[in-house]
Amino acid sequence: MAPAVRPALQQQLQLSEARASAMLTELLAGFSCGNFQLKLQKVMSGDGSDTQEQERWLLASRVYADIYARHGFRCQGLGGAEQLTWVTDEVLHAYPRLRGKVEEILKALCINQEPCSSARPQAASVPLSHSRALALQQELLAAFSSPDFQKKLNELCRQHDAAKGKSSAYRAAFKELVRSKQLDIIPRYGFQASEQGVEDMLAAFKAFEDAEDDDVCVNKAAIEETLFCASSSSSSKKDDDAGYRSSKPGQRPGSVTRVEELLLALLLRYSSPQFQNRIGHLKALQAMRSGRPLRVHVPDGYYRLPGRAALAFQVQKCILPIYGFAASPQGVIDMIAHCSQFMDSPRVARLMDETNAKLGMTPAACERFRKLAANLLPKKNHFASQHAARLGAPTFGPQ
């Protein structure tokens, strides 16, 4: 790019990172559509002459000219590839994290060269701050938890009978499904939308895991639970094709961190809008049966709530086998008794309170349950069964 042009162009770059990303997304959509690609392939099937290059950039200009104009850019005085790359160069100088989208745009235009040689090189490993690492994990978790993704995952597990073992075909399809979400998200955090970008992301997370960062480790466990719940009864072989599942399934939590992972996995499922709507429905039924308004204070703070145990078990039976507990009423009782050994941890106590709150309990009822749970021991299952319903466990005792 001509040095005399760049200063004037820098003055025009008034885009925020969000708007720059949106502009690149528009460009990529235009260049990736079937109609454009058919025309491009026809042009590129020529002899590689200068005329062919001119036709390619004329075709591209019909896409980017309107998009650039909407974002306040003009291409006057430039020709050929420069009409496209002068803006993408400036975007990369201002926002290096958008490099992945620029690479995808050039790939869609059949440009095999390394994009934007004037842009600053990007390190193979992208440093993540603690807050951005958590934000990336939460965005991935939300994507993997979406109804559309879960539907595809469950269909994949049924199609390949993953509960009996994971074939190479299943692993390849699983990896492709996971990548479909990862490659859309990670460029916003500075990683390339490629296999190398995923590896760099995992390497960045490993630094936090090696430092035993509780927040990152718990979020990782929640992501694994979301991805592997559908096939939790399958072989214990490590499912590392997509970069997840480093903990061996089927082992009961032996540390505070693993207990936190279990409670957070339950908390995330209980927090879904569908589950919360059903808890609200159970409260409304209880109010109707007792003849009182729904918003009137309940003396026990929903310490007992008819129907809650059966509702919660629909979540518990999926999660418990991952942590070494049977997917049964007795498995729920064993889980509560096991977690009670770690109640001295303030974080475990807080997560248990938050979990019970999502099950409809008031703060007073949460505290009441926690004090009872703190006195439980694994061998006292006969006592645990009397109180398991407070956590949503399906028992035959009072609900």
- Describe the global form: elongated
Based on CA atoms alone, the radius of gyration comes out at: 27 Å
Order of helices and strands: HHHHHHHHHHHHHHHHHH
How many individual β-strands?
A: 0
- What ranges have pLDDT less than 50 throughout 5 or more consecutive residues? 1-12, 112-125, 232-240, 379-399
**Which bin fits the share of residues in helices?**
55-70%
What key attributes describe this structure?
18 helices, disordered C terminus, mainly alpha, elongated, 399 residues, disordered N terminus
Overview of this protein structure:
The chain is mainly α and 399 residues long. Helix content is 61%, strand content 0%. α7 (130-145) packs parallel to α11 and α8 (147-160) runs antiparallel to α9. The protein is elongated.
Task: Describe the SSE topology.
Elements: H1 6-12, H2 17-32, H3 34-44, H4 50-70, H5 82-94, H6 99-108, H7 130-145, H8 147-160, H9 168-185, H10 195-210, H11 214-228, H12 256-270, H13 273-290, H14 308-319, H15 329-339, H16 346-358, H17 363-373, H18 381-387
Helix pairs in contact: 2-4, 2-6, 3-4, 7-9, 7-11, 8-9, 11-12, 12-14, 12-16, 16-17
